[in-house]
Amino acid sequence: MIDTAISSMLLENKEHFLIPASKVASVQEDNSLTHAFLVLTKVRYSKIPVLGEDDQFKGLLSMPMITETMLGMDKLNVDKLDDLCVADVMQQDVVTVQNPYDVEEVMHLLVDDPFLPVVDDRGEFTGIVTRKEWMKSLNFLVHNLDKEYELVAKHALNH
Ligand code: AMP
Q: What does the alpha-carbon distance between residue 35 and residue 93 come to, in Å, rounded to a whole number?
């Protein structure tokens, strides 16, 4: 259980937590790998969300998932990129969250992933929460907790 004083301080930065879908670079699951290759090169993010019809969240795509398909014996074969689509190579087993402000759940999951896709109860992609924004909140917490609260070591109270 996270102390309520701690979680309320972590949530002071809450309006920055959710990067809305409209600001997130993404590809469609039926896009060709050539298109996805160009998008990933341009946006420079290592992994981006994959969306399906009606903005349903489908998975994540990274450059290695694409370049893996180009590997030949001793050269790269780019022709494959027009034959395959994003759905053929994307990562499907992705952990998502519905509530980007659930301190307990989000902090736990961001240990393993630099960002988490946020979906609503119908599976529609609503945005992402990033480790970067949570680190900013943690930074704020560790620097300001003693300014807002009196911290007394429990072992000192016993003497
Ligand atoms: P950052 O918090 O900016 O370091 O981003 C961490 C990761 O989250 C990036 O490597 C991307 O995979 C993803 N990400 C962050 N912002 C965006 C965005 N606007 N569009 C797509 N992916 C993003």
A: 23
Residue 53 CA to its chain's centroid (Å): 20
CB-CB contact of 125 with 119 (8 Å): yes
pLDDT of residue 13: 86
Separation between Cα atoms, residue 110 and residue 116, nearest integer Å:
7
SS3 43: helix
Q: How far is the CA of 22 from the centre of ligand 1 (A)?
A: 13
Q: How far is the CA of 156 from the centre of ligand 1 (A)?
A: 44
* pLDDT the model gives residue 72: 85
Q: Does domain 4-148 have CATH number 3.10.580.10?
A: yes
Which of 70, 11, 10, 21 has the alpha carbon at shortest distance from 50?
21
The encoded tokens of residue 103 equal 């301190």
Taking alpha carbons only, the member of 82, 70, 68, 79 closest to residue 33 is 82
- State pLDDT tens for residues 84-139: 999 999 999 999 999 999 999 999 999 999 999 999 999 999 999 999 999 999 99
**The model scores a pTM over 0.85:** yes
State residue 154's pLDDT score. Answer: 84
Q: Is the CB of 19 under 6 A from ligand 1?
A: yes
d(CA 110, CA 120): 19
